[in-house]
Design a protein that fits this description.
The chain contains 3 helices and 4 strands, in the order H-E-H-E-E-E-H. It is an alpha+beta fold.
C-alpha cells in the first residue's frame, strides 16, 4: 500500500465516523420531538457505510492485495429507521390523541450512546492508523540522512 493511500483510507474513515457522530447527536437532540415539518414525531436516522472501491476494480481484487489510491469507506446513505414509535400516555400533552396517548420518537437513548461509543472508538482507531503511517514515513525519510 502506498503512503498516500494509507492516509487517504484513514481520512475517509475519520470523515465517515464524524458524520455518524453528527447523526447520533441529531437523534439525541430530537429524543422528545413529537412534531416535525413532515408531520408526526421525529424518526431516528441511521448512517449506512460502504466500501470505497477504486474505479475499475472489484471488491475481490481489492481484497487480493491490489489496493490503489482511493480505497476506504464512504457514507452510502442516511436512512430513516422505520421501527414503530413509542406510545406514551399523557393526556395533557398538546400532541396527544383522543385516547390520551402521544407518539414519541423511535430514538432509544441507550442504543444511541452505544453507537456513539462505537463511532468514537472507530475514529480513534483511524487516528492511530494515520499517526502510525505518518511515523513510518518520517522514519523512512530519516534513513536518507
Amino acid at each position: 500500500m502506498r503512503f498516500l493511500s494509507a492516509i487517504d483510507t484513514s481520512a475517509s474513515g475519520m470523515t465517515a465516523q464524524r458524520l455518524r457522530m453528527d447523526v447520533i447527536a441529531n437523534n439525541l437532540a430530537n429524543v422528545s420531538t413529537t412534531r416535525t415539518s413532515q408531520g408526526g414525531p421525529y424518526r431516528r436516522q441511521m448512517v449506512i457505510f460502504e466500501a470505497r472501491v477504486p474505479q475499475g476494480r472489484s471488491f475481490q481484487e481489492v481484497l487480493a492485495g491490489e489496493l490503489d489510491s482511493g480505497a476506504g469507506v464512504r457514507v452510502k446513505e442516511i436512512r430513516e429507521d422505520n421501527s414503530p414509535f413509542k406510545r406514551v400516555y399523557d393526556p395533557s400533552h398538546p400532541d396527544a390523541g383522543e385516547d390520551g396517548y402521544v407518539s414519541m420518537p423511535n430514538v432509544n437513548v441507550v442504543s444511541e450512546m452505544i453507537d456513539m461509543i462505537s463511532a468514537t472508538r472507530a475514529y480513534e482507531a483511524n487516528v492511530t492508523c494515520l499517526n502510525a503511517t505518518k511515523s513510518m514515513a518520517t522514519k523512512a525519510l530519516e534513513i536518507g540522512r
